[in-house]
Amino acid sequence: MRKYDGKGESRKFDPNFKGPIHNRGCTDILCCILFILALLGYFAVGIVAWSQGDPRKVIYPTDSRGQFCGQAGTPLEKKPLLFYFNILKCASPLVLLEFQCPTTQLCVETCPDRHMTLVKAKVGNKEDHEYYKKYCKDGVDFGKLSPPEILREGLCPAMLMPSKAFTRRCLPDLGTMKGGVVVVGNETSLDAGEGTNINATDVLEASKKSNMVVEARQVAMRIFEDYTQSWHWILLGLVIAMLVSLVFIVLLRFLAGIMIWVMIVLVILVIGYGIFHCYMEFASLKGEPGSNVTIRDLGLQTDFSVYLQIRQTWLAFMIILAIVEFFIILLLIFLRKRLMIAIALIKEASRAVGHVMSSLFYPILTFALLSVVIAYWAITAVFLSTSNDQVYKVFNNSECEYSRDNCDPKTFNISNVSSQCPDAECLFAFYGGETLYHKYLILFQFYNVFLFFWCANFVTALGQVTLSGAFASYYWAFKKPNDIPAFPIFASLGRALRYHTGSLAFGSLILSFVQAIRVLLEYLDHKLKGAQNKCAKFLLSCMKCCFWCLEKCIKFLNRNAYIMIAIYGKSFCPSAKNAFFLLMRNIVRVAVLDKVTDFLLFLGKLLIVGIVGIFSFFFFSGRIKAVEEAAPSLNYYWVPIMTLVVGSYLIAHGFFSVYAMCVDTLFLCFLEDLERNDGSAERPYFMSQNLLSILKKSNEEVKPVD
């Protein structure tokens, strides 16, 4: 009699079932066709973008005539920097980066390093003439034209001020002296060349945020210097992280139980040492001058080592680590009875990975495919964003009815605008366009983002189906390893691409829709940051939270649906339904065992990251006396440390993702095994003897026939 309790029909015994079905057909063909058409459209968008776009608009700054500064093979090849005639007309450096500063812009070889006015250059010697002419338009004759005539024609700037190159643009060399006095090139005021003086504070106010940009530039340069000094040590640390991850997985195969308990203890000890170290630093700063300053009072500092000199920083670190330690211990106490089954699953996963060693190298293929997807998306996005035309606008000093109107520099001098507004100029403003292509450019950008999500999710789904098919072949082999098919990874990959491209595209499409909506909500949230409507902000926050939860649920269902596709070869919807009902019929095991194994694998990642992080901290901070001389001299020793922590986590995640997929596949096969079989000679369990003993089950021995 069929067992049905509203959670789907239990699996029935099938004597012919021996693991992943080989006689299968193509699934979700319509979605496969849709995916292929979408890819063809994606390639078409890329071709159009590549034909219309020009990345030089991002790489090179553009002068007032729309020419690229420093572009190879042009007359401006040796003039890579952009100079502004009147920097005071630029509201902020952000305006400069958007090419919308309403003043004449000129490509130059170097930024001016001294203060000089046009009048002083005019009456000066030949050297002054030649120096000043480098920052004037071509063809200026100081001998024939007077300074008022030069300024009226807009041929030269009224003055030069000390500047430095930043993002290939000459920005004022702003700084501060003792007492907070603002200076430009060590001068507190500058002669504007028109009978007036300009204070350095006026320059600072006119180009607001310049000091923040300069500080950011200094921090960026220091970080870049740190990378140049420590890149080989970072590579060595990443190789060590890879070796530690590999050794950890190999040891799990033979010593899974011991390794997991050692791992749990080590994680607790590592976090405990972190708490102890933070307390010692907190205690050592007691009574030190300035150590009681709060982080809020300190504000944003470019020198991050300042934060390590105050007690509140170490107190915050200590509290965070203590909370993490408390929750880990609490979880271990409450889930201790389920740890044995979780360890048995991990042991079984270790054996499966040992018999399918090629699975450890499959993440390299996934990484390569994702790199191609990311590179194509990034290149297409750059070409789309630079596929606008040059837009010229009228800029003037006096009142003019045509101010900020579009203009054509080729016909501007013979137009009515130049006659009615004598001081007006037709200057390059920004990139835009009014053609049909430019009107739908935002849709092309959205299509690029959406197809990026779809392709990335498809690559991830392909990896999950491939690995689950290989590990399912291991589980359903009654006599291991004799019954395991040859080359299980390649066989599973071939089945996935040949029969289930449509199903993978279907599951990826659903997830991509949710991710695209989340991106749209983030965009709306960014736009509403300055709004005062609290109700709209609350609703938007609720929607962001709901779609975040929805994305997590879909990822979980997709993952299990792909396992069922790999095993039974059915379409996405029936596979998702069967996986969902199978999990619902075993909801207690799912809620505990599956999550316990995920937690244990997470502890493994945490341990690898902790080992690499702690050793890199002691090495780069110079606290290991034996290798103190070998450690590079750095501005911020946290730069290589954070790089190694993030890199080692990604490496550990790559190795453990194979393990996690193996555990999830074996877990679903384990649940199916319990429903299909009963341990009799006709219906024996396929699970390992270790799992049978933990569950207090056994297989009947087949009696020999006389």
Question: What does this protein structure show overall?
Answer:
- The chain is mainly alpha-helical.
- The protein contains 22 helices and twelve strands.
- It has helices at 29-52, 56-59, 93-97, 118-123, 126-133, 147-152, 200-206, 210-284, 295-298, 311-334, 339-355, 362-385, 416-420, 436-439, 441-475, 488-499, 501-527, 534-568, 572-585, 587-620, 638-676, 689-694, and strands at 81-84, 105-108, 116-117, 159-160, 163-166, 169-172, 174-176, 182-184, 189-191, 197-199, 389-395, 425-432.
- The strands form six sheets. Strands 1-2 form a two-stranded antiparallel sheet. A two-stranded antiparallel sheet has the order 3-4.
- β5 and β6 form a beta hairpin.
- α8 packs across α20 (587-620), α11 crosses α21 (638-676) and α12 runs antiparallel to α15.
- The protein starts with 28 loop residues before the first helix and ends in a 12-residue tail after the last helix.
* Fraction in beta strands: 5-15%
Instruction: Look at the helices and sheets and give the structural class.
Output: mainly alpha
Number of DSSP helical runs: 22
**Low-pLDDT sequence parts:** 91-99, 178-182, 206-214, 702-706
Transmembrane segments: 29-50, 231-251, 258-276, 314-335, 356-379, 451-478, 599-622, 634-656
GO molecular function: antiporter activity
Keywords: Antiport, Cell membrane, Glycoprotein, Membrane, Mitochondrion, Mitochondrion outer membrane, Phosphoprotein, Transmembrane, Transmembrane helix, Transport
Protein name: Choline transporter-like protein
